[in-house]
Design brief:
With about 220 residues, the chain is α/β, with parallel strands linked by helices. It contains six helices and 14 strands. It is about 35% helix and about 30% strand. The strands form four sheets. A seven-stranded mixed sheet has the order 1-11-9-7-4-5-6, with helices on both faces. It has a three-stranded parallel sheet with strand order 8-10-12.
């Protein structure tokens, strides 16, 4: 598993707004859209390109590029916090087919042994996934990795893709270790894109320093 921490100044500036406890609901949600679009630009840089020629309105051939594989992208939204993040990503990947997984940590049972949570999945709607596809899983906060691990299991049961990407705002070393083991066990090519790797989880399984509950802050509780 590869991890790319995106240190672009714009991404880091938007992340700062997201972290700020004074940021209100509307601005928080808009900032998730903004950072989603900016991360999309970083993700697409890793797609292969090919040289093409086009004819301009002046009847002159001009050299250009085409990005390979953008028509074979599946974006999976992990509800509900990822919704604004995906809104930004779709600006960069407008041809993407979209899937939805409604998953939640069963927080009333607390964090279990090994720093994981029981995950409850209540709704799944995924497009067909083929061997030429790139599957992009989107969740702003990758805290323990428990939710993403269960979503990956679900997606792998529907068919194998060429590669898998995770788009997040903040992740933790704990989650990265868990997902790295999962990738090794299942033999999948996975790259995580994130704006920050925060060092700690508190006793409730929240990322520290983090930005709080992204879903609650974006949608008003």
């Amino acid at each position: 598993m590869k991890v790319k921490v995106l240190d672009h100044p714009y991404i880091q500036a938007v992340l700062t707004v997201l972290r700020d406890r004074r940021t209100g609901q509307i601005e928080f949600r808009k900032s998730l859209v903004r950072i989603g679009r900016a991360i999309g630009f970083e993700v697409i840089k890793d797609f292969e390109t090919e040289e093409v020629f086009v004819e301009t309105p002046l009847n002159v051939r001009a050299r250009g590029v085409r990005i390979r594989g953008v028509d074979r992208v599946v974006i999976v939204t992990v509800l509900r916090a990822a919704w604004p993040l995906v809104e930004g990503l779709i600006k960069i990947f407008p041809q993407a087919r979209q899937g939805i997984v409604s998953a939640r940590r069963v927080e009333e049972k607390g964090m279990l042994a090994g720093g994981r949570f029981e995950i409850e999945i209540t709704y799944v709607k995924l497009p067909k996934i083929g061997p030429e596809d790139t599957v992009m899983l989107v969740d702003p906060m990758i805290a323990t990795g428990s939710t993403m691990e269960e979503v990956l299991k679900l997606i792998l049961s529907r068919g194998r893709a060429r590669k898998y990407l995770i788009v997040s705002v903040i992740a933790t070393p704990h989650a990265i270790d868990r997902l790295s083991r999962f990738c090794s066990e299942h033999g999948i090519d996975l790259t995580m894109y994130t704006a920050s790797i925060d060092p700690e989880l508190n006793e409730d399984g929240y990322i520290v320093p983090g930005l709080g509950d992204a879903g609650d802050r974006a949608f008003g509780g």
